[in-house]
Amino acid sequence: MAFIRGIGGVLLALLLAACSADDARPPPAELQSIKPEVTLERAWWFDVGVGSAEQILDLRPVFMDGVLYVVDAEGLVTALEPVEGERLWKEDLERSITAGLAANQGLLFLVEEAGKIMAFDTATREIIWEAALTSESVVKPLTVGDSVVVQTIDGRVTALGQKDGVKRWEYLNTTEPSLSLRGDAVPLLFKDSIIAGLSNGTVVSLSVRSGELQWEQRVAEAKGRTELERLIDVDSAIFMVDNRLFAVAYQGRLVELDPFSGTVVWATEASSYSDLSVGYNALFITTPAGEVAAFKRDGGARVWSNNELAYRYLGAPVVWQSYVVLPDFEGYMHVLNQTDGRIVGRFRPGDEDGIRVPAFVANDLIYIYSNDGTLSAWRQE
Questions:
Q1: Which burial class, exposed, middle or buried, applies to 266 when counting CB atoms under 10 A from its CB (0-12, 13-18, 19+)?
Q2: In whole angstroms, what separates CA 300 from the centre of its chain?
Q3: Which residues are within 8 A (CB) of 255 and not within 5 positions of it... i.e. 6 or more apart?
Q4: Cα 368 to Cα 379: distance, rounded to the nearest angstrom
Q5: Which CB contacts under 8 angstroms, 24+ apart, belong to 276-279?
Q6: Of 57, 12, 22, nearest to 288 (Cα)?
Q7: How far is CA 301 from CA 76, 105, 160, 375, in A?
Q8: How far is CA 8 from CA 65, 124, 173, 235, 239, in A?
Q9: What is the pLDDT of residues 44-69, one digit of tens each?
Q10: Residue ranges of the chain whose pLDDT lies below 70
Q11: Residues 271/254, Cβ–Cβ less than 8 Å
C-alpha cells in the first residue's frame, strides 16, 4: 500500500493541495500589518529536544496527575510542572518515536518507527513492555479502561492490555485506499464505543469490549481521475461535545453524526486535514487553501470565512477564551475573533520551522509545541 510519507511538511502540503496536474498553486499570502486587539506574553518555554526532527509526526504532549509529559522524535521523554515550566525529570529512550503520548495510571504509551507500541512507567522510568504492530502508527494511542487502543496505517485498530501489552482484539478496515495522507484521526471514547476516522472516508464505531463494528458512516466519496484527486481521509480529530459528534474529511464534508447510530444529522461541503475545533456556537476548520472558516453547530451553515492567510499551510485551530488560535508554516500563531473571524493578534513562539502539533489549552494557558522542539506556554497580557 502506498502512503504519502517521509517528506517535508511544505512538500506534503503542496501534494495535498495539488489535486490535478494543471493546478497552479499561488504563493503563500504575505502577512499584513494588524492593529493588535489582544497580546499574548510567554509564561515560560522549555527546550525538550529535537522536536519533530523535520518529520511529519503527531507528538502531542499529555497531562497526567498534574504533570505535563512531552516526547521528541528521538525518544527523549520530559516531565514538566505545567504552570511554571520547571523540569521534573527527563529520560532518553533512544527510540524513533512516531506518535504519542497517551497516559493512564502512571503509564505513558508511545509508538515507534519500527512498528511497535510501548508502555513506559513514569515511576521507575523504564519500558515495562513493548508489542509489535502490523504496521506503522502515526497517531497517538487511546487509553480505554485497562486497554490501550492504537490505529495503524494499514487500516487496523487494535486493543492491547495496558499492563502487559497482550492483544485483546483487532478491527480491520478491508477497503483501505491505495494512497492515503500521512496521518489518522485521533480516536475517541464514547460510552462503550471507540469512534475512529478511516482513510476510506468513513467514521466507524467499535465495541470497547470486542472491537465489533457497531456502525459505519461515510463522510466523503472519492472523486476524480487521479489517486491524489481521490484522497478522502478522515485525518482530523473527531470531536465530541454534549453527546454531539463532529467530523470533517479531506476533500469531503463537515458533518454532525448521531454517536449512537452514526446517522448524519447534517452535512456541508468542506475539506480539511487538520483537527477541527468547537467554540461557543460554531465549528472552526482550516482548509488546504489556507481559509479559516466557521460553521454553525446547529445545521452547519457557514458563519464566516477568512482568506487573509491563503496558502500559508495552516494547522489546527484551537479555541482559547473568545478567540481561535492557529499556526502557519512559518511558525506564526494567528489569533482570530470567534464572532467574525477578524485577525486580532499574532505572535511567534518558535522559529521558522513551523508548528505541527495542535496547540492545547489548560491552566488558563495555551501550550504550543513547535517543530524545533520548543514547548512554550502563553497567557493574555
A1: middle
A2: 22
A3: 217, 219, 246, 247, 248, 264, 265, 266, 267, 268, 300
A4: 11
A5: 276/236, 276/237, 276/239, 276/246, 276/247, 276/248, 276/316, 276/317, 277/239, 277/316, 277/317, 277/318, 277/319, 277/324, 278/239, 278/241, 278/246, 278/319, 279/319, 279/324, 279/338
A6: 12
A7: 44, 42, 41, 36
A8: 35, 36, 28, 18, 28
A9: 999 999 999 888 888 999 999 999 99
A10: 1-24, 175-184, 220-235, 251
A11: no
Of 374, 297, 378, give the one whose Cα is nearest residue 335.
378
| pLDDT single digits (tens) 129-173 | 999 999 999 899 999 999 999 999 888 999 999 999 999 999 998
Cell digits of residue 331: 511558525
Answer whether 371's CB lies under 8 Å from 352's CB: no
Is the CATH number 3.30.230.10 carried by domain 58-172?
A: no
Alpha-carbon span 234 to 271, nearest angstrom: 10
What is the grid cell recorded at 208? 470497547
